[in-house]
Every structure is written in structure tokens, then in C-alpha cells.
Amino acid sequence: MRVVGSITARASLWTSPAGATAAPARAVASQLARFGLVGLSNTALSWCLYALAVSVGVWYPLAAAASFAVGAVNGYTLNRVWTFRAGAFSASQLGRYVTVQAGAMAVNVTLLVILVEWIGLQRLTAQLVALVAVAALGFTAARGWAFAVAGEETLPRPMSRPRLVLPRPSLSSRTLLRALAILSVLALGAGCVAAVLVVSAKRSFLSPPSRVGFPPWLAGPWHQVGISLPQRGFELIQVFAIVIGATMACYLVVVALARWVPTPVVVGAVVLLHVVFLLSPPFPLTDVFSYLGYARLGALHGLNPFTHAPVAVRHDAAYHLSTWHHLPTPYGPLFTAGTYALVPLGIVKGYWALKGLTVLASLGCMALLWRCARALDRPPAPVLVFVGLNPLLLAYGLGGFHNDFFMMLLVLGAVLLVLRGRSALGGASAAAAVAIKVAAGVFVPFILLGARRRAVALAGAVGSGAMLLAGAIAMFGTRDPGLVDQASKVVGPYSVTSELGLLFGFGIDATTRHVLAAIMVVTMVVLIVRTWRGADWIVTAGWAGLALAATSVQPMPWYVVWALPFAALGRSRTLRAATLALGVVLLVNSSPIQNLLLTNKLHLHGVGPTAGRATRALLH
Fold first, then answer.
1. Disulfide-capable partner of 419 in 375, 433, 609, 616 (CB 3.0 to 4.6 Å)?
2. What string of DSSP letters covers 278-336?
3. Contacts with 457 (C-beta within 8 Å, 6 or more apart), sequence order
4. What angle is formed at CA 498 by the lines to CA 494 and CA 502, rounded to 5 degrees?
5. How many Cα atoms are found within 13 Å in the side-chain-facing hemisphere of 568?
6. Which letter does DSSP use for residue 213 in this model?
7. Per residue in 24-57, is it b (16+ CB within 10 Å) or e — as a string?
8. How many other β-carbons are positioned within 10 Å of the β-carbon of residue 3?
9. What does the pLDDT look like over 537-563, one tens digit per residue?
10. Half-sphere exposure (CA, 13 Å, Cβ side) for 159?
């Protein structure tokens, strides 16, 4: 019996896929996918460091070697712990890895020199090609030797050399869905990178500040990649529209498969895309320079930005880079006062500081969403997918470096504090968000109603609001932000309301604005009453943010961020579907896609010329 058992066990090793000497095909595919994600992070890190070193004058082969070494350190930790799961630290394993990376570095530098000196590619483009080309060699060597796991020795040969019978490995639906989800995330990331490359390639209306020049500090390192683009404006619109449209399609697929996306993939993709947009020029508007212009108006020229417009200081360096020349600041006093600290840095350093702070604020929002999901006993990865990978938030919000991220940072901080029972601080944070941007006011009632101790939350909001109001009056006087001018004159060529006007024959005038305001007030009252009666306050807050974005006559595509976090955290599928639908509408209505689809393809011309002239009067 012992002999029979031994023979049976040995035969099972030959016939069972679990006992085969080679890893199953799906395990190799899973390792390859993880290795690819780690490789993306290494490539992004190495290439960014390489671009920085080259820009300051380091000899490009030396810059390539040094940046490759830094990426290798990042890759060692992630590949050992996650990709190959090679167990505890081993000196011999580290030695093998160093040997592999040294060989890969030699190949990388050699290929880089060939591409630059013989082929004639630009140095940044050549390094990107070289890094990708070395990846396949790195995976083969890392899996086969550097991270080979002890215990996977070759099995002893059987006495009688039986015929090897291996069943064909079958990919389960779970594996296929996970692979499709990962590929969709990679495609979404590639679309975002492509959009950045299109905007960074040359001076165009895709990055409005470039109309007065495209110096390296504004164009960013992506400008050096050297992508070839059409010269005609309409053709450029088509390229950008195709890229953004494809990215939105990938996002919808990723949202549908969110439960199958591994958490490290989600976190890695969100962080890497934030780095990508940090290094891009601003698009599609000039708001980042408007922020700096209002700050310089007060801190440098001694004029109150709440009562004076940038046109009062035409000679200022920020004036020609911005567009809201005849409009006093529409932003909250807390945000305006905060930007005063950037004025001593000058335009260039202040611009990069504000970009960096915006990216950090956005990442802070992602971290708060993660904690809110944990507090609600929800899986955080799908929440992060729904918000952090949204192309409108990335390309238009983060790419334009808008202050909505600072507002939402305080709003989501208030949500987390309320969920954790810290009602007073939650109310105070909600009130502070209004001092960043008035739009945050739609969330305050629901945060207060969601608190366990509503009276305490209300007291915190009132106390915080009173102190901020006193500080604002002391610094800026009693003049409110330029919201009246903005709300009464600024009209986007396309919006939900203007498109309804095209269908039913009414335009956008003072009466229309009053009707929209009344609709918004009624909507808020209904939602507040429902919340008071026990409805989920997170869901009703999401509907409030969605209604505010939908009723705006000058909607911006990143306004979807007002509803995204609450739709992701709430349990309402209807709210999530409505948020996705509004996102598609905002994408179509956003410049320059609106020019391609609505004006040139559908022959719709948006609002009338009167409203358009009123808007342009504030710009120039």
C-alpha cells in the first residue's frame, strides 16, 4: 500500500496543474500584469527624474543611469513583496536583483545613446522608448532568476519516464474579468497621458496661457516628448476629442468592473495620473493664473480683489496669462487670503507651488474618501475608482488646477468627522469649505443633519462661520465675492439649461436665471425635508451637488466633482447613474469638444449672441 500510495502521489504531480513544475498560465499572466504595473511606476519615476536632470544640464547618459537606479530601488521592493511574492529579505536574492538591474541599465543606456546619436530621436523620447524596450528583458530575468522562490525545485524524475499529461489550464470568468479591468485601467491611463501629450506638444487653444508664449516652465517636461500633431485648429480639436472620448469610454468600463480591479492597481493608477497632470501645462482654461492675479492684486498692488478687477493692473505679469480681466474675484475669502502667501514666490514659482498644492489637495480628497468608505463599511477601492479615475476630474479639474479640490477637501473632511461622531469639528469644517468656494454651501445642511448631535454640529458651523466672516470683513470689507456679476452675465454656449432652451424655444435671460434659482431652491428644500425624515444624508447631498451642476448656465466639466464623492459613497444606484450621465453631458458640452460635435456636426449654436457678448465683456 505504501508503494502504491507513493506511485499515486508521484503520478498526481505529473498530471495535476497544481503540482506541475511550471507555474499555471494564469499565474504567469497575473505576475506579468503586476510586473507591468510596477514597471509603469518605475518608468514614470525614472523618466521624470531623467527629464529633470537633463533640464538642469546633466549629461544624458549619466542622467539615464542615475534615474534608472532610483527606479530600480522602487521596483525591488514592489516586485519582491507584491509581484513575485518572494518572501522575506534575502541577501543572495538582492545580489541577483542588482545583477539583473545592472545589466538592464547597461542595455538601457546603450539603447538610449543609439536612439539619440544614430537614429536622431529627442533625448526624452529616446529614454521613454528605451525604458519600455528593457521591460520585457527585466521581467524574464526577474521571474526566472532574481525572484525565483525557494521550494520550486525541479521534481525528481520518476523511475519509468511516464508520458507527461498536463490538462489545458482554463481561465475562469473571475480571471478574465480581472484581466479586462486591469487592461481598462491601463487604457484609461494611456488616454490621460495621450491627452497631456496633445496639450503639451505646442502652443494652442488647448492650453490658453500659451497664447502669449510657451516657455519651458509653462510647457513642462512633456513638451519635449516630440509628438507630431496636425497644424490646423479643427484637426487638433478632432484629435483631442477622440482621445478624451476614448478615455471616458475606458472609465465607464472600469466603473462597471470596479469590484474586479485590484486595490494596488487603483491606488497606483490614481497616484501616477496625479504625477502626470502635475507635469502638464494648464488646460483648458487660465484659472490658475486668475488665482495668482487676484492674489497679486491685493498683496502686491494694494487693491482689494473683491472690489477691483485685474484690469486695474494691466502691467502685472499675471494679467496677460489670465482671462477674467473685468471680474472681481468670485472666490471665497479664505482661498483668496491663502493665495496671498504665494505672491512673494513670483509668477513661475507661485504657479508651480499652486499646482503642487492642488495635486496634494486632490490626493488628500482621495485619502479622505478611502477613510469615509472604511467608516461606512464599504470597500474603498470601487469608491476610489469612481472618483479618482474620472477623466473629467483628471483632465479638466486636475489638469486645470482648480480650487474645487481645496473646497472638497474640507467638505470630505467634514463628512469623515461626522461619520466618526465628531460633530462640532464636522460643522466647522463644512463652514470653512464655504469660505473657499460658495458652492460648498449646498452640502452644509446635509452634513449638519447627518451629525449624531445636530445642535453641536450647528454650533460648530456657526462658530467657525462667524470667525471666518469677521476675518473676511477685516481683510476685504463687506463686499461679497464677484458672484453677482458672474451669475448675471456669464453664460456658457452649451449647458443643460441652454440645450433645453433650444428644444423649447426659450433663451437664457434674467427670467430664465430666476426660474433656475427657484428650481434649485425647491430642490434643496425637498432634499432637506427628506433628509430630516430619515433619508440617507450622503445620497441627498449628492443629489444637491448634481442639481447645482445641472442648473448652472456656465457649467464646467470638473463640476461633476460636486456629486462624484457622494455618489461613490452612497448606496443609490440611481444617483451613480445620474452622475455618470451628467458627466457624459458635461464632456460633450466642454470646449473644444462642443465645437466639434455640437456646432460643426449637429449644427447647434448654443446661446444667442447677446449672452455671448456679455460673457466676453468680462474677459477682455
1. 375
2. HTSPP-S--HHHHHHHHHHHHHTT---TTT--GGGGTTSTTGGG---TTS---S-HHHH
3. 418, 423, 424, 426, 427, 447, 448, 451
4. 110
5. 31
6. -
7. eebeebbbebbbbbbbbbbbbbbbbbbbebbeee
8. 7
9. 999 999 999 999 988 877 788 999 999
10. 3
pLDDT tens track for 249-282: 999 999 999 988 999 989 999 999 999 999 999 9
Q: How far apart are CA 157 and CA 615, in angstroms?
A: 82
Other residues' Cβ atoms within 10 Å of the Cβ of residue 338: 18
Cα dihedral: 396, 397, 402, 404 (round 10) = 140
Long-range contacts of 147-154 (CB under 8 A, 24+ apart): 147/79, 147/80, 147/83, 147/84, 147/86, 147/93, 147/97, 149/84, 149/85, 149/86, 149/87, 150/87, 152/21, 154/21
SS3 391: helix
Q: What's the predicted TM-score (pTM) here? A: 0.73
Q: Which of 151, 105, 111, 144 is nearest to 127 (CA)?
A: 111
Sort 525 into a burial class: Cβ within 10 Å, 0-12 / 13-18 / 19+.
exposed
Helix (H, G, I), strand (E, B) or coil at 160: coil
Query: 396 vs 186, 202, 367, 556, CA distance in Å?
Result: 20, 18, 20, 8
Copy the grid coordinates of residue 305: 480683489
CA 256 – CA 381 distance, rounded (Å): 13
**Under a CB-based contact definition with an 8 Å cutoff, are residues 204 and 213 in contact?**
no
Q: What is the Cα–Cα distance from 530 to 152, expressed in whole angstroms?
A: 61
Cα 123 to Cα 63, 88, 89, 224, 458: the distances in Å are 11, 39, 36, 8, 58
Listed in sequence order, the residues at least 6 apart from 504 whose beta carbon sits closer than 8 Å to its beta carbon are none
Q: Is 275 helix (H, G, I), strand (E, B) or coil?
A: helix
Q: Is the dihedral of CA 591, 592, 594, 599 positive or negative?
A: positive
Alpha-carbon 174 to chain mean position: 27
**Looking at per-residue confidence, does 514 or 336 come out higher?**
336
Q: Using CB atoms within 10 A of its CB, is residue 216 exposed (0-12), middle (13-18) or buried (19+)?
A: exposed
Q: Assess contact for 221 and 55: CB atoms under 8 A.
A: yes
d(CA 171, CA 188): 24
Q: How far apart are the first and last CA of the chain?
A: 95
